[in-house]
Write a structure and sequence with these properties.
It comes from Lactuca virosa. This is TNase-like domain-containing protein. GO terms for molecular function: endonuclease activity; hydrolase activity. It holds the Pfam family SNase. Helix content is about 40%, strand content about 15%. The chain contains ten helices and ten strands. It has helices spanning about 1-10, 35-45, 65-75, 80-90, 150-165, 170-180, 215-230, 255-260, 275-290, 300-335, and strands at about 115-120, 130, 135-140, 185-190, 195-205, 205-210, 235-240, 245-250, 255, 265-270. It is extended.
Length: about 350
């Protein structure tokens, strides 16, 4: 496993130890896990033949899970080659971290059938990221696609608002802004420029990230924020559903869906997308146990939503039954009193 193993084992372990089965038969190599790594490091530490920084006992708090063990190894050996780190993590059966994932510009799927139009956004507000696969964006009304779609009354309201603000008639300006906002537009101030823009909700095509309330839901949302915060995006729109545009998103030449899949923070949504590239990226994250794939059986977000709807419907039905029963009992007692 290259130089990383040499640093860990030194001269006292000429051959990497393996866990073997017992009970009379030939031993079979098995993943060792973070507990075995802890034992090996502890042994080498007391013989002063382990890297100084990789002190398991003194780390605060001591790693107790495979993910924490991976973080310690990567942090300690961050100067090593990625292949060395991957070999060490693989040897001990530890999950890969998304910090080892490499995403390069240019590796994007070819433009498929169904492409409708292209949207170029203004810089994204991180607060507009709803979850790991959805964001609200603003696009200039002068954008090639939307320039002919601005209602005349909205353009007029924007012009009148600008005049009202120049005259310090802020009450009128606020009223006009409310009219603009209610129509699905906004006025953004960017680099001393006042820009009339249309608001759109974008759903990332071909992936399904964990919902915010699910395990890894927060991590997925945070990763999307990290990618697009303050950036101008290119969106290739293919469809519209539930008031949202569905499309492929690019940020600084990087295909956003690729990043989310490679970092194990989204599923390939095969019910609606059959692209082999997305399937390949998900399989890569699964094999390396990155992100949500560190769990042995992560719940699929579409199943989670289905179960939640069933629960909510059952809850409403139960409340209705109780309300009806209470009304019947109340009517019965009222009749007795009379």
């Amino acid at each position: 496993m290259g130089n990383a193993l040499k640093s860990l084992y030194g001269q006292c372990c000429p051959e990497p130890p393996t866990a073997t089965t017992t009970g009379g038969g030939t031993g079979t190599d098995q993943p060792l896990g973070h507990s075995a790594l802890a034992q090996h490091l502890y042994h080498f530490e007391i013989t002063s033949q382990v890297p100084e920084d990789l002190t398991w006992r003194e780390s605060k708090p001591p790693p107790k899970t495979p993910e924490e063990a991976s973080m310690l190894v990567v942090h300690t050996l961050h100067r090593r080659q990625t292949a060395d780190l991957e070999g060490l993590l693989s040897f001990y059966g530890l999950p890969f971290l998304d910090s080892l994932v490499e995403v390069t510009a240019g590796e994007t799927p070819p433009l498929s059938d169904g492409f409708k139009f292209e949207l170029h956004t203004l810089p994204v507000d991180p607060r507009a990221v709803a979850d790991g696969d959805g964001v609200t964006v603003y696009v200039r009304t002068t954008d090639a696609w939307g320039s002919t779609r601005v209602p005349p009354e909205i353009q007029m309201a924007a012009d009148e608002r600008k005049k009202a603000r120049a005259q310090r008639n802020y009450a009128k300006a606020d009223a006009l802004y409310t009219l603009i906002k209610d129509a699905g537009y906004g006025v953004l101030h960017i680099k001393n420029e006042e820009i009339l823009a249309r608001k759109y909700r974008i759903r990332l095509r071909g992936i399904d990230a964990p919902e915010n309330a699910m395990p890894y839901g927060k991590e997925a949302k945070d990763e999307l924020v990290k990618i697009i915060d303050g950036k101008c995006l290119k969106n290739l729109i293919f469809d519209e559903e539930y008031g949202r545009f569905v499309g492929d998103m690019y940020c600084d030449g990087i295909f956003v869906q690729e990043t989310m899949l490679k970092k194990g923070l989204a599923w390939h949504y095969t019910a609606y997308d059959k692209r082999p590239e997305l399937e390949k990226w998900e399989k890569s994250a699964r094999a390396k146990r990155i992100g949500l794939w560190a769990s042995s059986n992560p719940e699929m977000p579409w199943e989670w939503r289905k179960n939640r709807r069933i629960y909510e419907n059952s809850d409403r039905w139960l409340k209705l039954c109780l309300f009806t029963l209470f009304g019947a009992i109340l009517s019965f007692y009222i009749s007795l009193i009379k």
